[in-house]
Amino acid sequence: MSLAEVKGVLFDLDGTLADTAPDLVQALNFSLSDVGIAAKPLKDMRSAASHGSFALVDAAIPGADDALRTQVQQRLLAHYQRINGDHCQLFDGIAPLLDWLELCRVPFGVITNKPARFTRPLLHKLKLSSRMPVMISGDSTRYPKPHTAPMLLGAQQLQCRPQQILYLGDAERDLLAAQAAGMLGGVALWGYLGEADTPDAWPAYAQFNSPSSLHTALRQALAK
């Protein structure tokens, strides 16, 4: 498999397609304030933003008991539903990449573990929902990533064989899911990787420093 064989491109959402951390961390801080805990800086919470609401809570209040964890997590989700997309932007270089993929008639979409009640409104706010044949959320199939179920559903909706799909993500589970489904996996190094992450050990076809470097690699490969 190689980039020259790619017929479709799928993205993880948080930390790969879009910079959702500002909204997520603001929702976290609202929830912390609700229970009398000081706000946390965005820069300290950013690497947890790809890993779900409980990961954000655990990064903010490590060692908290289960009752407090659950209380803060539930409040976080409620606040996030209200502010979802307010401060989110596509990462620099994503918009021209998507425009180019459309020009080349290469379909693209999203497979995320974010629940659909957040995914679809966010993609609509980013004006992407009408451009994507694939918008798979964490609850679209019985099992989320790293299971193959959402990946294979994405391939079906994209009308491509898994071997013809490049999947981009910024977490190990993304690359494990891509490998298990038979897709080309690409590490989005511009995403929410933390100090403990070891992308060199993830089962990826390639690593990309920026959306622009991904764009260049695809353009060169598909021009051959």
UniProtKB/TrEMBL annotation:
Record keywords, A-Z: Carbohydrate metabolism, Hydrolase, Magnesium, Metal-binding
Entry keyword annotation includes Acyltransferase: no
SUPFAM superfamilies xrefs: HAD-like (SSF56784)
GO molecular function, one term: hydrolase activity
InterPro entries recorded: HAD-like_hydrolase_sf, HAD-like_sf, HAD-SF_hydro_IA, HAD_2, HAD_sf, PGP-like_dom2
Keyword Hydrolase attributed: yes
Domain of life: Bacteria
Protein's UniProt name: HAD family hydrolase
